[in-house]
Design brief:
binds glutamic acid, Arc Repressor Mutant, subunit A, three-stranded antiparallel β-sheet, 11% strand, elongated, 18 helices
């Protein structure tokens, strides 16, 4: 049924963020799915800024949001700003009053937190025939409203006796989401609304508004919540990194983040995992949405990121590292020698410093990491380096355990158990500097 509909109408989707700060990883996913749904079907993807709650607005957030979306390749065909469309909303609200589907209310606005199901369902002003004030929805009694959710693929219905008389237009003339988004979805001929799960409880209000405003109701899909792998709860700003900008700052690449979120709530038929944006659009299938809340596994994100890091040429990787991921005073010539060694081993750009920082500065060596024979190991290594003997020969010649010998060497040279291949590292670091570091550890106790 969904398929034949897709063929009939022009698919138009929208991403409708409020410019209140950084981009939530769940919002990036919403935008991506809306983009893919439109583009897979040759349709349009719109960016609509829902900035009618001026108290929550953050200066600069709009520009930052646009820059971030572009980094991910999510470009829009049309752009709208709700604050520039205020007359549309107020005339829609007035029309609803005229048609008997809404009423004026002059009560003091309640605390926003109370604007929910906990408040009285029926507003006493609905019977007062006031001529000014805020405008609220006149919810009918005992009527069933329902829709089929295209993400969850099921019919969901409510009895209007459980739906409250929601505010549509505030007394200051600004619309609420309940009005503005519905007016826009109709006037922008949106075919599919994809939005966060938080909006599900408000959907009966929206269905009524759509029906009263007239026109064709868009299909609606509510995306699942992304859960923390550790707590099994919704990702929380306090506990978890949730903003796309935070992931970029940690050195995750846009293509990896995007590939990771693609599969947080959608799956292809064939278990394929790697998709560029273009490939995702091509393979996108509206029936691939999953019903269960996905979990955010960092090791999966790291796997994707490692994959995309390794797709880069050394030159590209150096350019990426230059965006704040290099130790201070990095020697660029040295860097070009190190990058090939490191590329295979780092999961994110920020790993570079901890993994290869020892090339640029001497690290404190934690002696407790060293094995009990470390002095012997390191002395023989110094000797080998001085005499130009291959380090690989040393363990056998001296009856050392290979693993123990090289581990002590890593720790003494790099201050860490995790390093690029140690032979190559010593070569890059230079014989003299390496010997100096080894001697320092031997003598320093
Ligand atoms: N501004 C709403 C939000 O950020 C948009 C929801 C929607 O896509 O309709 O949650």
């Amino acid at each position: 049924m969904i398929k034949s509909k897709l063929k009939m109408d022009k698919i138009r989707t929208r991403f409708a963020p409020s410019p209140t700060g950084f981009l939530h990883i769940g919002s990036l996913r919403t935008a991506l799915y809306a983009y893919a749904l439109a583009k897979h079907n040759g349709g349009d993807f719109l960016l609509r800024i829902e900035d009618t709650d001026q108290k929550r607005e953050v200066p600069g957030a709009l520009e930052a949001l646009q820059t971030t979306l572009k980094k991910f390749g999510l470009t829009w065909d049309e752009f709208y700003t709700q604050s520039e469309r205020l007359p549309l909303y107020s005339s829609a609200a007035k029309k609803l009053v005229k048609d008997g589907h809404a009423f004026y209310c002059d009560c003091k606005p309640k605390n926003a937190k109370l604007e929910g199901f906990s408040q009285e369902l029926r507003d006493p002003c609905r019977n007062k025939s006031l001529k000014s004030g805020a405008i609220k929805l006149k919810v009918p009694d005992d009527k069933v409203v329902s829709y089929c959710d295209f993400v969850h693929k099921k019919e969901i219905s409510w009895n209007t006796d459980t739906v409250y008389d929601a505010t549509l237009l505030k007394s200051d003339g600004f619309p609420t989401y309940h009005l503005a988004a519905m007016v826009d979805d109709l006037s922008m001929k949106i075919s599919h609304i994809l939005r966060g799960h938080d909006w599900l409880p408000s959907t009966p209000i929206h269905l009524l508004v759509f029906d009263y405003l007239g026109g064709k109701r868009p299909e609606i899909g509510h995306l699942t919540d992304i859960l923390s792998a550790e707590t099994g709860k919704k990702l929380s700003k306090r506990r978890d990194s949730v903003f796309v900008e935070q992931f970029l700052d940690m050195g995750y690449l846009p293509e990896a983040i995007l590939n990771f979120v693609m599969l947080l709530g959608w799956a292809p038929k064939d278990n394929r995992e790697l998709f560029s944006l273009g490939e995702f659009v091509k393979n996108f299938d509206i029936n691939g949405f999953q019903d269960a809340n996905p979990r955010f596994f960092y090791n999966k994100l790291n796997w994707f990121n490692g994959h995309y890091i390794r797709q880069k040429t050394d030159k590209e990787l150096i350019e990426l590292l230059k965006n704040g991921f290099l130790p201070e005073n990095t020697d660029m010539e040295l860097l070009s020698k190190i990058v090939p060694l490191v590329k295979e081993r780092i999961a994110k750009l920020s790993d570079f410093s901890s993994f290869a920082g020892f090339f640029f500065e001497k690290k404190e060596v934690d002696k407790t990491l060293l094995g009990k024979n470390y002095k012997e190991h390191l002395s023989k290594a110094v000797e080998a380096l001085e005499r130009g003997i291959l380090l690989d020969k040393i363990p056998e010649e001296n009856g050392f355990k290979v693993g123990d010998f090289f581990m002590d060497l890593r720790i003494a040279i790099a201050g860490s158990k995790f390093t690029p291949p140690i032979n190559e590292s010593i070569e890059i670091l230079g014989k003299e500097e390496s010997i100096e570091r080894l001697k320092k550890v031997i003598s320093n106790n």
